[in-house]
Specification:
Elements: E1 6-8, E2 45-53, H1 60-78, E3 86-93, H2 97-106, H3 110-127, E4 134-137, H4 141-156, E5 160-170, E6 175-177, E7 182-186, E8 192-196, E9 204-213, H5 219-228, E10 233-234, H6 236-247, E11 253-254, E12 256-258, E13 267-268, E14 271-276, H7 278-283, H8 285-288, E15 304-309, H9 313-326, E16 334-338, E17 341-343, E18 346-347, H10 358-365, H11 367-377, E19 384-386, H12 388-411, H13 444-465, H14 469-490, H15 502-524, H16 529-539, H17 586-592
Parallel strand pairs: 2-3, 2-15, 3-4, 10-16, 15-16, 17-19
Antiparallel strand pairs: 1-5, 5-6, 5-9, 7-8, 9-11, 12-14, 13-14, 17-18
Helix pairs in contact: 2-3, 5-6, 10-11, 11-12, 12-14, 12-15, 13-14, 13-15, 14-15, 15-16
The protein binds ligand ME8.
Ligand ME8 binds near residues 61, 64, 309 and 340.
Length: about 600
């Protein structure tokens, strides 16, 4: 029989209710239109990833979180000068029992382990083109200052008291667990040991005097915040889950550990016998990065979007907003939650030996290829499966054949001998559909293509705002298919530049296809930055012409001049994305990693 978790409170119990300095009523987020609708408040945007534990090397799940945040912040930056003020932070979570134990097992001093693994993360993110503006390590002095200050604010507001915590603690997940979340698992010798029901990680019984945070006082404020901000947690099912959690009892939370037990952390100010709980320490990283406790942080908070995995939802959607409200601050504007990657249908785990090294993937599929795969196939609502054939099939069909093929068809010398952006002929492709005449060549499907590509940037922006980057890529891919259909339909290779009848239409077909490619290249920049650069450079689009704000698709069709018409294409740079060979050994390799 398991003992019952007990939170016995020894300190003051009847403290006054928290007074909340900031209003946290409904807040409206921009719809993502590309017009100048972003107001001053929304002009600043701050994206964060979780900060990752340094007990093990990074895997594809960590890279995925960083890529989501990277794509969101790159897209935001592309929206133009009014939204240029974008920050994006990631980093490593280096304190706590888990790291202390991992260092001891590895026979290393904690700092050595932290330096080593944090460097792995930094190198990986650099290789993968993660455009973070800050990489924070919780062992930095600036972070200690922020955490201790934050602690002081909670203390001064009567939200911390001393009490005895007795119950289960899971060092792997760094969390306390109620009895109902603990079960027993059989060991290899038939013995049984207690584990967390959710994660399966071992738990141990803990009893010690700690500082305790009055979390129970925040149940209603949190409910009000979530009900008033239905988009606070996206996708919606996760918002719903959090509200369900809040229907249950919300006990106070132990926020320190005895230093004799946990020495690897930030000491409680004024009480060296206690170390601050690693989650309180870790969550404050989001403030450290924007300069907290200096007033400058206020211009970035709460214009914040946290990108997190579903495993750490409770910490971000309950503990963190409660800490913030307690400190007199607003909860973050958005919490974007994603599900997990599995490998060949299995959860990644060290014991199964199937943890996939992201650097191997970047080498095999190229940086842009793997970025595209993860963001195109990763669906936030559900777990997604990774296996080699799936990546090869997707990249060959969408990047090598469809997109690369399209570029090649429109720029190859034999079809475009002058290597220019040809002229658009308004008589061949009048802006009004249904006109008839001897030189009118455009058909109904061609108008459908123009309409699809014209609305694509707005559609993509809406998908980004709803944290559905995979849908944005799906929409781009569908337009690429439609454009290939357009080229196929009009078979420019059968038209003759020498013929006065064919030439204007041949130029128009290429002009339209190149305009579509220009839109695709611009929209793909946040996901495949190098590939998009190669594509846009080949089209002769200069660096200053790549923002979403200036992306006027097919202006000649709408009666405006086109700055690209007649311009020379950029130099030939070879295949846009070389086809990948299937690998027979890959599965075996992935399992052995
Ligand atoms: O929880 N698929 O760090 P962590 C997708 N230090 N994403 C995954 C994943 C998978 N299979 N596995 C992990 C911590 N992730 C704390 C965070 S934040 C203040 C402190 C990603 O190293 C996902 O984002 O265990 C998940 O939430 C995070 O890595 C957990 O990383």
């Amino acid at each position: 029989m398991l003992r019952k978790s007990v939170l016995r409170l020894l300190g003051r119990t009847g403290a006054s209710r928290v007074s909340l300095l900031e209003d946290f009523g409904p807040r409206y987020y921009t719809s993502g239109s590309l017009s100048a609708r972003d107001d001053a408040r929304d002009a600043r945007a701050y994206f964060t990833t979780p900060i990752f534990y340094v007990n093990a090397a990074p895997h594809i799940g960590h890279l995925y979180s960083a890529l989501l945040a990277d794509a969101l912040s790159r897209h935001r930056r592309l929206r133009g000068p009014s939204t240029a003020a974008t920050r994006f932070s990631t980093g490593t979570d280096e304190h706590g029992l888990k790291i202390q134990q991992a260092a001891a097992t590895a026979g290393l001093a904690p700092t050595e382990l932290c330096d080593r693994v944090s460097k792995h993360f930094q190198q990986l993110f650099q290789e993968a083109g993660i455009s973070c503006t800050d990489f924070i390590r919780t062992t930095e002095a600036r972070h200690r200052v922020a955490v201790q200050h934050f602690w002081g604010v909670l203390k001064s507001r009567g939200l911390l008291y001393k009490g005895v915590y007795e119950g289960w603690y899971c060092a792997s997940d760094e969390c306390f667990l109620p009895e109902a979340k603990v079960t027993r698992q059989l060991g290899p010798l038939g013995d049984s040991f207690p584990v967390s029901l959710e994660s399966g990680h071992p738990v141990s019984w803990t009893k010690e005097e700690n500082y305790i945070f009055r979390l129970s006082q925040f149940r209603e404020p949190l409910q009000r915040w979530l009900r008033g901000n239905p988009q606070a947690i996206t996708p919606e099912p996760f918002h719903h889950v959090v509200l369900q959690w809040l229907d249950e009892e919300l006990p106070d939370l132990s926020v320190s550990r005895r230093s004799s037990h946990l020495h690897w952390g930030i000491p409680v100010p004024g009480d060296d016998s206690q170390t601050i709980y690693v989650w309180l320490d870790a969550l404050v990283n989001y403030l450290t990065v924007i300069g907290y406790p200096n007033a400058e942080f206020k211009s970035w908070w709460p214009a914040t979007s946290h990108i997190i995995g579903k495993d750490i939802l409770k910490f971000h959607a309950i503990y963190w907003p409660a800490f913030l409200l307690g400190a007199g601050m607003s909860p973050p504007q958005r919490i974007y939650v994603h599900s997990h990657w599995t490998v060949c249908g299995q959860k990644m785990s060290k014991s199964l030996g199937n943890v996939v090294d992201p650097r191997t993937c970047l080498n095999r599929y190229t940086v842009d290829g793997f970025r595209y795969f993860l963001l195109r196939q990763g669906v936030p609502n559900w777990d997604c499966d990774y296996y080699d054939e799936k990546v090869v099939k997707l990249l060959n069909s969408e990047l090598a054949d469809a997109l690369g093929g399209l570029l090649n068809r429109c720029t190859a010398k034999r079809i475009n001998p002058s290597e220019t952006y040809p002229a658009f002929c308004t008589t061949c492709f009048p802006s009004e559909p249904g006109l008839v005449g001897p030189s009118v060549r455009a058909q109904a499907e061609d108008y459908a293509l123009v309409s699809s590509v014209a609305t694509l940037p707005k559609q993509v922006a809406d998908h980004y705002d709803n944290f559905q980057i995979y849908k944005a890529l799906e929409a781009v891919s569908s337009c690429v298919r439609q454009t290939n259909g357009f080229v196929q339909r009009h078979a420019p290779w059968k038209l003759n530049w020498e013929s006065p009848v064919d030439a204007p239409w041949l130029g128009t077909v290429l002009h339209v296809a190149l305009e579509c490619l220009r839109v695709f290249g611009t929209l793909l920049q946040p996901v495949t930055p190098s590939l998009a650069d190669k594509l846009l450079s080949r089209l002769g689009v200069s660096a200053s012409e790549r923002n979403l704000g200036e992306l006027y698709f097919l202006p000649r069709f709408y009666g405006h001049p086109c700055p690209f018409e007649g311009r020379r294409l950029g130099p030939e740079t070879g295949l846009l994305f070389p086809r990948l060979e299937p690998s027979r050994t890959w599965l075996v390799k992935a399992h052995r990693t």
